[in-house]
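A further point concerns the way the authors explain their paired sequence and structure data. Showing the layout once, in full, would remove most of the difficulty. For illustration, here is how one protein appears when written out as sequence plus structure tokens:
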Amino acid sequence: MPDFKTLALRWLKFNAVGLLGVGLQLAILAVLVGGSGMDYLPATALAVESALLHNFLWHERFTWADRIQTATGGWVRRFICFHAANGVISLGGNLLLMPILVQVLHLPILLANLASIAIRSLANFAASEELVFG
């Protein structure tokens, strides 16, 4: 178990990478929904997948760079675990929350997506810390 200072620094790095991923996800969502007229749910799935790929690469090289040599298995195992854990949390969470936020609460699509991301952030960090890079 890392000390509080190490964990806090990792949380900050995680969120920095996450903010870049959020920008990418929202940009892709805006283009797919606004530019091409795609329905918001499949567009959300594609945008989330793009952010997942982006975030994994940055987490490998930045957030958990100190662990990639000692983590169990190679990058392929981490990639699969990241997709399994964060993919379920991110993609599943988005696809469950977006209809509630958009259709029930009538939030604009991009604001709904931001709210969904914020709701799932801590779960994604915990999954990465323990299951993927632990």
Remarks:
- The chain is about 80% helix and 0% strand.
